[in-house]
Specification:
18% helix, 8-stranded antiparallel sheet, Phosphorylase Kinase, domain 1, 8 strands, globular, Glyoxalase-like domain-containing protein, alpha+beta, 40% strand
Length: 129
């Protein structure tokens, strides 16, 4: 199985500080960084360290229906894909988490998502985010 080039999950009813706190439990160092010109006002860039290497990420606060996006820009993390990270997040945060079913390519349906619940159950949904 091919590793995802990056990871992105959407967590229900979580704010930026809660996101940073959770990420700090997963990685040795997590720190907010300065926004790059042109970034949306609800975006909060950060850096994190894993296996002595530094990576970048962005939290997009309340981007759709109360869900916050957490994006990790690395293919060198412990999770093979978005779904693996989403299952962990749902369990640890006791919140609903969503991920795209496919990718963001032209052949993928952008409204096809997976809903992961804290009890581990997963269902396919249509989400016009």
């Amino acid at each position: 199985m091919t590793r995802a080039p990056d990871l992105e999950i959407y967590v229900d009813q979580i704010d930026v500080e809660q996101s940073i706190t959770w990420l700090s439990q997963l990685f040795s160092k997590v720190a907010k960084t300065k926004k790059v010109k042109g970034m949306p006002k609800q975006s909060f860039p950060f850096v994190f360290e894993h296996d002595h290497r530094q990576y970048e990420g962005v939290i997009y606060d309340k981007v759709s229906d109360g869900f916050t996006s957490i994006w990790l820009n690395s293919d060198q993390l412990p999770w093979q894909d978005d779904l693996a990270l989403a299952k962990l997040a749902a369990e640890q945060l006791s919140k609903e988490v969503r991920v795209t079913q496919g990718g963001w390519g032209p052949e993928d349906n952008p409204d096809a998502w997976l809903r992961i619940m804290p009890d581990g159950s997963t269902s396919e949904i249509i989400w016009k985010s």
